[in-house]
Write a structure and sequence with these properties.
Pfam families: Radical_SAM (PF04055). It comes from Eubacterium pyruvativorans. This is Iron-only hydrogenase maturation protein HydE. This protein has 14 helices and nine strands. The protein is of the alpha/beta class. Strands 2-3-4-5-6-7 form a six-stranded parallel β-sheet. Strands 8-1-9 form a three-stranded parallel β-sheet, covered by helices on one side. Helix 6 links the parallel strand 4 and strand 5. Helix 10 packs parallel to helix 12. The two termini are 37 Å apart. Bound molecules: S-adenosylmethionine and FE2/S2 (inorganic) cluster. The site of S-adenosylmethionine (SAM) has 19 residues, from loops.
């Protein structure tokens, strides 16, 4: 009976790229026998759209100063054990130059919500990057801002924005964030970013505290219907200086399964095999690719500051030079039959999705 129902649900996901929330939940709860067939199908769909290409984004972690206090995050405001830093404009531009040399055509500027980086500071910086590298994508990942600010940064030349929704369940969101942070505000930011014209990235952690298959089913339905251009998912990993220090990490198995389901629910989505996935398993990113991921985001931050952008315990690549990260990923992707390419790595819509 379980077998019959599972067959019906997986068949529907593969054919229609859509399930009811209850069906997603059932699939997660009974995934044992669905895992391998769905991974195979996710791989097939990925190859149909993106061939053997893996897109790379150079990640520049330009500030670890943050006004927020997300309960899971290692650089949260109340963690006094972090040595805080902020890269200068010159350091950021140097990272871009080095990245360009290494073949990156997308730069991701990520950081905490650092009040120093007002529009007055960011607009000229983005303009410079835009002027210097007209063919590159400029991605921002700097949290929640006013609509006018998103607009100003877009007008300056930023074209993508990563803002994980973290969880699609309002009650769950409240358990992961301190009083004062708002689920609705975050979701509204995603809508504004899209209206302005950014390619947007949503996403969530797998195995975050209090998460059950119910919340995950909501996340999947949200991704299926909102259709963000990118979806970042990786395991939650505890950080020793946060309130969640004793919570268990999310698993490789569930993360890979969800990568496959997301690929099938929204076939064209740009889906990274994240650093967090590479942290919980030495071949996590390769396994992510074999489950349907098609993007990797090697680190371009200066080595001196890397150890201070520790979102969770034991984060990988802390001491590596940017060039090492790049060639390491190149090699890893070759072991799973993929090839890292040098271009912006834009979303490709299938005829059916136009
Ligand atoms: N401040 C920006 C924001 O909030 O969107 C960008 C930086 S924030 C550190 C980037 C992402 O790191 C978050 O969206 C969250 O999902 C992830 N993250 C934070 N702490 C984590 C942890 N302990 N384990 C796994 N991922 C984590
Ligand atoms: Fe701000 Fe994590 S709490 S980046």
């Amino acid at each position: 009976e379980v077998e019959e129902k599972l067959k019906r649900i997986t068949g529907k996901l593969i054919r229609e790229h859509s399930l009811e929330e209850e069906e997603y939940r059932y699939l997660i709860d009974h995934r044992e026998d669905a895992r391998d067939p769905l991974a195979r199908e996710a791989r097939r769909v990925t190859e149909q759209i993106y061939g053997d290409e893996i897109f790379v984004r150079g990640l520049i972690e330009f500030t670890n100063i943050c006004r927020n206090d997300c309960l899971y995050c290692g650089i949260r405001n109340s963690n006094e054990n972090v040595e805080r830093y902020r890269l200068t404009e010159k350091q950021i531009l140097d990272c871009c130059a080095e990245g360009y040399e290494l073949g990156y055509r997308t730069f991701v500027l990520q950081g905490g919500e650092d009040g120093y980086f007002s529009d007055e500071v960011l607009v000229p910086l983005i303009r410079k990057i835009r002027r210097e590298y007209p063919e590159c994508a400029i991605t921002l990942s700097i949290g929640e801002r006013e609509r006018a600010s998103y607009q100003a940064l877009f007008d300056a030349g930023a074209d993508r924005y990563l803002l994980r929704h973290e969880t699609a369940d309002e009650g769950h969101y409240r358990k992961l964030h301190p009083e004062g942070m708002s689920f609705r505000h975050r979701m509204n930011c995603l809508r504004e970013l899209r209206e302005i014209g950014y390619a947007v990235g949503a996403g969530f952690m797998v195995g975050s505290p209090f998460q059950t298959s119910r919340e995950l089913a909501e996340d999947l339905k949200f991704i299926e219907t909102f259709r963000p251009e990118m979806c970042g998912i990786g395991p939650f990993i505890p950080h020793r200086d946060t309130p969640f220090r004793n919570e268990p990490a999310g698993t490789l198995e569930l993360t890979c399964f969800l990568l496959s389901v997301i690929r099938l629910a929204w076939p064209s989505v740009l889906l990274p095999a994240t650093t967090a996935l590479g942290t919980i398993d030495p071949r996590g990113r390769e396994k992510g690719v074999l489950s349907g991921a098609n993007v990797v985001m090697p680190n371009l931050s200066p080595t001196e500051v890397r150890r201070n952008y520790e979102l969770y315990n034991d984060k990988i690549c802390m001491g590596d030079e940017s060039a090492q990260c790049r060639s390491c990923l190149d090699m890893r992707m070759r072991t799973v039959g993929r090839r890292v390419v040098t271009n912006r790595g834009d979303l490709r819509r299938t005829p059916r999705e136009e």
